[in-house]
Every structure is written in structure tokens, then in C-alpha cells.
# Entry
Amino acid sequence: MASQDLKGKVAIVTGASSGVGWQTAVRLGEAGVKLCVTARRVEALEKLRHQLEAQGVECIAVPGDVTVQADVEQVVRECLAHYGQVDILVNDAAVQSYGFFDELPWEHLTRTFDINVFGFMRFARAVLPHFKARGSGHILNVQSMLSRGSAPLLAAYSASKHATLGWAKCLEMELEGTGIAVSNVLVPSVATNMFSHAPTMLGLAPKPVPPTYDPDVAARAVLKCARRPGKTVIPVFLGGRLLLWINSLAPALGKLIMGRFGARMQMRDEPVVRPEGNLFRPVAEGVGPYGPVPPTPRWVRFSATAGLAALVGGVVLGVAGLARAAR
Ligand SMILES: NC(=O)c1ccc[n+]([C@@H]2O[C@H](COP(=O)([O-])OP(=O)(O)OC[C@H]3O[C@@H](n4cnc5c(N)ncnc54)[C@H](OP(=O)(O)O)[C@@H]3O)[C@@H](O)[C@H]2O)c1
# Structure
């Protein structure tokens, strides 16, 4: 499909008060998209709206909770009332809660699904009648590498992201030929505020599984999908395509590394008491695209990629050599 000009299109971006959602709104705005940004924190949304308007981007901010049906409908209604149309829905809002599966409060599991899975579905159902009436539209879901992979301490989050990708794939098929596209961006670890407001059962501050990328990597991938709808993309190599490839080639390796070291990899040596974080109520901490932990430096990512590629290449050559010798 040819790249679409986004100028004058209208997008709803959920989860826009922080992280990938915020940066996505900025990138879409730069491309000429008119925005309706939403999340629970009013002041954060207003800050984003002012920033965008100062850059000449048309933007309305409509606060709401993705678990409240009336809020979701209100966001879509206000967007339609203001702009007369919606072209793109960016489903981004999500939460995670850190803890071993049997130690996570049951309410954390259900709430994670209510936000991450049903939140995406509620928004999709709210825009679909409008999209169907126009015979066009785009549901663009911010997914995760954990929509395909897995990690200890994040059972609820990972399960929710697997569910959301499964739902999106079904929807894509149901909408075939209607003019309505579904896209997914499988985001790697990105240095957002998610880790500064996620609940943790472990008494230590959480951090992303390395390597960690700039949130702009995810925002630019969303922008690319907005221009070329209907794709499921993995925007990075080391923390993305290579990881999935190794995992399908040697699943025991990933299980061994993440099983032994995955929990430790996700904790900083900084005590923190945060049993609920932003799960049930929004918190003041963590506004804007960047969180407290910086992205992994580029040179470290390049060295790790080269090392891993050499290791995989060596293993493949070794196995091929053994197979030839055995013949
Ligand atoms: N950070 C990563 O490493 C990473 C990796 C892979 C995928 N992702 C995906 O990227 C997306 C954004 O994550 P992020 O890292 O940008 O996280 P973030 O900085 O914590 O942003 C999450 C956003 O969701 C909103 N939100 C949370 N609960 C909500 C609710 N009940 N109703 C409405 N909005 C709610 C938050 O705003 P309020 O609190 O103001 O409501 C915030 O704007 C998510 O889909 C996540 O799964 C992130």
C-alpha cells in the first residue's frame, strides 16, 4: 500500500499523559494529524495540549478512564463533535504490576486485563460504528514484545498483551475488505515512566528488561504504521526481531536466561513501597515521554547485537558441521 498523507486526519490517542502515548501524539502532530488525547490525568493532558498547540498542532484533551464505558464513549463523542470525524484510533493506555504470579493480588490481575485488554476493545467498539459508516478507519494498537514473549514477574501484563494481540488479529480478519485497517506495533523495552508508577510486590524499584530504547522508537513506528496501515511491526532488531528469532530457534536458551536472571534483571537496588502504583488511581509521578531510567547506550546495543549474532552464527555453523560429520 502506498504511504498515506496524514495531513488533516484526526486521531484519538489513549494513554497520552505519559510515555509512548505522549510521544506518539507529538509525532502524529508533526505529521499534520489533528489530535484528541486522553488518559486519566487532566493536568498532564493539558500540558501536552499546550505543548502541541505551541507547535501549531490542533489538539483537544478529553480525560477519561479506559475501564469506564461512559468515559470511553464521551472521548469519542467529543472528538466527533469537535472534528466531525475520527480516522485513527491509537490504543496505547496500559499498566503493569510486578510480582510473582501467586503473590499478585487477584485484583491486580483483573484490573490489568480491564485496562490493557478491555480498554483497547472498548475504544475499538466505540469508534467502529463511525468507521463502518464511512467505510474507512484505522485501529492502531500499541502492543509489546511480551505480546509474543514472556518474562517472570509480569505474568498478568504479558498475558494481557498476548490476549490483545490475539484479539487484534481476529478483528483484522473480520474487517477484511471493509476499508478499516488494524495495525500492531510490538514495542521493545522503552525508557518511559511505566516503571516509575507500576505497582511492585518486591519492595524494589522496577526497571525494563534490557536493552531499553528511546520511547521515540515506538512513536516513530506508530507514525509509520499510521502512514501504511494494516501491518504488525517490530521496530527494532536486538530487543525485537533477533530476540524472537533466537527464541523460536532455541527456546530453551531464553527460558534458561529469563528463568534464572529475568526477575533480577527487572529490579533496581532502590527500595520502594508501591503496592498499588497507578493501577486503580492515577499518580502524580511520571508525566511526559521519558522515565527515570535512561535508554541503553547505542554502543552497548551494537556490541550486544554483534556478540549475539556471532554466538548464533557459531552455534548454527557448529550444528551444521556436526550434522555433516554424522552423515
Ligand atoms: N515501557 C515499555 O518498556 C513498554 C514495552 C512494551 C510495550 N509498551 C506498551 O506501550 C504502551 C505505553 O506504555 P508506556 O511505557 O508509555 O507506559 P506509561 O508511561 O505508564 O503510560 C501509560 C499510559 O496509560 C494511561 N493509563 C493507565 N491506566 C489508565 C486507565 N485506567 N485509563 C486511562 N488511561 C490509563 C496512563 O495515564 P493516566 O495515569 O494519566 O491515566 C499513561 O498515559 C502500553 O501499551 C505498553 O504496554 C511499553
